[in-house]
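Quick entry, no commentary yet.
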Amino acid sequence: MNFQRIFSRTLPVLALSAVLVTGCRREEEDTDTNAAADNALAEATFSDVANFTDEAGRTGDLTNYRVGDLEGTLNACATITFDSLITTDNDTMTIDFGTTNCTGNDGRNRRGKVIVVYNGRFRDVGHTHTVTFDNYFVNDNQVLGTKTVSNLGPNTAGHTVYDVNVNGQIVLANNGGTITWNSQRQREWVQGESTAIWSDDLYSITGSASGTSASGQSYTMQITSPLIRNMALGCRRHFTQGVLQLTPSNRPMRTVDFGSGACDNIATVTINNRTYTIQLR
């Protein structure tokens, strides 16, 4: 048997196989940032709801909701109604943006109703409120679900802390799919609590979440460095700092970094030591 001839025929085949395997590995390189981007959209959308329900409690009473204030996210197209002018158990506030898109000074287009059922005054320890939605859209994406907020009182630093839980969905415009998002948060009011100026507020957010992206990819998420919400004009739309780790099912963990304080719509996603830039919606 001519072993030299056999090996001369076999080695090129093996070399070709190695090239094909290497090519397949390159083609299968994980560059998918969709789950990270969809999670960021859910974070921003439901945090936005927290912003204007917080604004409702600025004076310590949910019946004093500021409309059209340059410091706020809302303008004159939002109509605020109450089932009672006296703060009692389970009062209801309805924020109605109308049936056509209304642009706030944060650049978001909103329409529909946000309904807040509250118990006690916003700044009182033990206060709770639950938010639901009635044909509510942000930038033509429909927002569904519930958001529950409880005032836990001051921490050791003297900052008020809120427990925030969301069981929500976002139905993307133009048949873009549905994002599901379930989160458990603690929201610390670290700056601006003692003033009546909304734009000096700063919040630090910790916690975890789970959900599915619009493409159906399930994932879990953990905040590893607090997400910072800066309410200064021009900054309040997106987180300006913070890091989270997001792990889609059957894929490597992604690290999402919102930056070091710049007021922009940029975040980075690191997968397998490769870093990609995404634009936040």
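second:
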Amino acid sequence: MSTVKINQQKLFPIGLGTWHMGEDAAKKEQELEALRTGIEQGAVAIDTAEMYGNGASELLVGEAIQSFKREDLFLISKVYPWNASKKQLPISLDNSLKRLGTDHLDLYLLHWTGNVPIAETIEALEKAKKAGKIKAWGVSNFDVKDLQEMYQQKDSQNCQVNQVLYNLGDRGIEFDLLPLMQEKQLPLIAYAPLAEADRLGGQLSASSNLQEVAHNHQATIFQILLAWSIRQGQTLTIPQSGKAEHVKENLQAAEIELTKEEIAQLDKDFPKPTTKQTLSII
């Protein structure tokens, strides 16, 4: 099984995404069980953001992790672009830490590009790192030009990840963004690796090649999608699920190793991009 290294730390390659979680009181116990089950089953990385339910997701994660050792977890949160200034970022960060019930984040990401100059955001992130409130920082939803601009700034080499949408049905980043990230040795965090099942699920599940590969491994289509997303060993993938049984299935996908032939088979139905694609964002 592959691991992914982020900030010199080896992580289980499938984490726990939490978008849309913590927003419905009726689902709270089920979602807490899903997160706790995930941690018990080996997930280390938990991804959240101040945006998710206006802090509700962070509160849920904070409650879910109370009974676990903090050093066994890799907590990721994100700051809104308009809060990413020298003045506002420390406030947002403190609020996120309070909701999560922790004194530090393992990784803090700029959620997407905004009007605050990236140089100022980096300065604020570096200051938070020196204060011990974050161990590392990264970016999210950055396309090639955004990364190129970032890499012209002081301390930009300390960026640890770029989190973008990536799945078998959305491969646009393979044309130019992923090669740039590989050149810079910048790991990828793949969000929506299950292609937002409702959005692309019909198209994906109709693929006879995908069905055949799933059958070969006695796996679900979704497990193959996850195995595919981490096939290169430089990716942390963060499927979201509010159900414990789904979380278990998701994590079992880390055991699946796709052969070159199977990857080529999937390429037939979902080919690599041959031109520049607009960065997919949801």
